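note to self — DONT lose this again. spent like an hour looking for the file last time. sequence + predicted structure for the chain T wanted, 340 res
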Amino acid sequence: MSTLDSLGRPLRDLRISVTDRCNMRCRYCMPREAFGPGHAFMARAELLSFEEIARVSEALAAQGVSKLRLTGGEPLLRGGLERLVEMLASIEGIEDLALTTNGLLLAARARSLAAAGLSRVTVSLDSLDEATLREMSDTPVAPARILAGIDAAGAAGLAPVKVNMVVRRGVNDRSVLEMAEHFRGRSETLRFIEYMDVGSTNGWRMQEVVPGEEILATIASRWPLERLPVARAGDVATRYRYLDGAGEIGLIGSVSEPFCGGCTRARLSADGRLFTCLFARSGHDLRALLRSGAPDAEIEARLRGIWSARSDRYSAERSAATSDRADGAPAKVEMSYIGG
């Protein structure tokens, strides 16, 4: 039976960050100014072991979690990730085991990840234009390399592959139609994400948000669309299908249309802190508990207590505000620390 939070929301999804490191420096997530050569990443001893991650996951599966997603940083930078996949895939009650990646290392790992028990992958790709992608990622990467990873994932059976595009006004909004055209008629689902004020280092401004309705109108002006019903409770993307049968797209609009009321996600950082919101300012230390020799019952009780006290609804509260985030507001956890 699922544990409910203070607003009656069940706990069904756990996003697991396995590393705080990344081989890209996307400006909306891990800007180079804050994560440059002098940045101190976590030491190996600080990271949860695979056994510790599996123990938390098993405890949460007993409380209703059925979906796990591996994130980072870039999760494929964590050595031996296939072994963790095998461990998590064997947990009773886990029905879906996914991974979010920037795709740079995916082509070489897709088959081994699928063989280990991974169900699906989501790949981040913000433009097909190399110059625009470089501006978004602050990394000299060719879109073709990421596309090769997407193809390899599909061939390995990690389907349906989802492709996430964060849209930022004045940077890559001109790439919306090109991305839509490329993925029309293919097996992947392209999802457009509003630029969010995650963390405190990305310089977020409301003026740079392209609302989902504007993105939708841009695409629909060329290829008519029809809204689809919600596939699963807790899903954050609004789905639309092309009327000509060329597949579907998704819109994730946590800025213009908050979905806090249906949020069923918890997030586990690489060093063992549990966060109950993507926009949280602090997490709950589980690593110390895990390494203290605490029995399973104590860990399960701790997790139940954290979720049952949860009242987070940041996006809805932000949406009710009339201005951008105030200067001097308390720092929020960085997205690269707990995954998107």
